[in-house]
Amino acid sequence: MNPACRLCAAPLTRTFVDLGMSPPCESYLRPDQLDEPETTYSLHVRICERCLLVQLPAHVAAEEIFTADYAYFSSYSDSWVAHAGRFVDDMAARLGLGAGSFVVEAASNDGYLLQHAVARGIRVLGVEPCGGVADAARALGVPTESVFLGERTGTEIAERHGPADLVVANNVLAHVPDLLDFVRGLRALVADGGTVSLEFPHLLRLIEGRQYDTIYHEHYSYFTLRTAAAALAAAGLAVVDVEELSTHGGSLRVLARPGEQRPSEMVEKVLADERAAGLHTVEGHTGFAQEVFEVKAGLLEFLLTAAREGRSVAGYGAPGKGNTLLNHCGVREDLLPFTVDRNPHKHGMHLPGTHIPVHPPERLAEVRPDYILILPWNLRAEIAQQIAYTREWGARLVVPIPRLEFV
Ligand SMILES: [Zn+2]
């Protein structure tokens, strides 16, 4: 039986891209787990022929991933905290937020964003289902409710705390399995004259940049401005403005308000860009599977040629996106003997599915590989600087996406 669209409930009969079966991309393995069976889930992404939402059915439930010991603390990334600080400055200026205002954030994580509003004397509330990160937020002075946001919880919170002038839902929309319940929760939280702000990766950039490694099990929905506006409209929210950001390979920041609204020129511009790329039709989405094949062919040709010529290759980085890529391409230790990563929690671990070992970066200077394959391509400039010393022995840096390229 075909799964149903999470936005309009039509049966999903058409493939956007099928990356096969893969283990969850953050389930790194200890050496003693390597002989055990691994659970894999489908990465078969569909497009709805009725509403055009590109989506992955929620094979892995959000509750399994975002549990109490969920380890992702946003504050670990300095650049991310700075991005959040600029966001709060922008919104405070634009909406005139001050001491009498109330700001709520859905998926507020460890308070990395709301702490900037607290510093301005603005009343805030975080909504964060993961117990561990919610505790960290409270320690920063950010009051936090540990629930998933939906229509019921949003209504209850608004009854207790009052409606919000600003509801922030940055980088969460793509990760909610029950999309309609979530956007209704946003509507329940926001005041009739208030604003909702959302950030999410832009499907137009994913397609243009062949960023297929950003497809993973917890990334349930892949939005254009058109489909995001349709989801918001289902809850009575209208898009008023949009901004294009460079985060996550190219994201949109969308502002929406309750009721009828007049969209900005920028909204018309982004919708026109999407139409020019064909993303207003089902057919306009159908070339992506071939683009993905080209990336796979380029990477495998490079690795096979290097192996035949007796040249050594090492990886740099062990990001979740690298696991989508390596599993889809079927790369194992015979083609990529190891990768290195700066995160000490990953040292001595093995990548899910491919079982490629992860070492500290110092291993590069010991092994002196001929080629270094940069898996987090979005950080290629930063990484090329960090490992500039590898040029001493003539190592060449390689990125696999959007096409195989020597840096
Ligand atoms: Zn649909």
UniProtKB/TrEMBL annotation:
Domain C-methyltransferase: 247-402
Occurrences of domain Methyltransferase putative zinc binding (ranges): 5-66
Domain of life: Bacteria
Gene3D superfamilies in the record: 6.10.250.3100, Methyltransferase, zinc-binding domain, NAD(P)-binding Rossmann-like Domain, Vaccinia Virus protein VP39
SUPFAM superfamilies named among the record's database cross-references: S-adenosyl-L-methionine-dependent methyltransferases (SSF53335)
GO biological processes: methylation
A molecular function GO annotation: methyltransferase activity
A Pfam family this chain is assigned to: Methyltransf_13
InterPro entries: Methyltransf_Zn-bd_dom_put, Methyltransf_Zn-bd_dom_put_sf, MeTrfase_14, SAM-dependent_MTases_sf
Entry keywords, A to Z: Methyltransferase, Transferase
PANTHER family, A to Z: BLL5978 PROTEIN, TRANS-ACONITATE 2-METHYLTRANSFERASE-RELATED
Protein name stated in the entry: Methyltransferase family protein
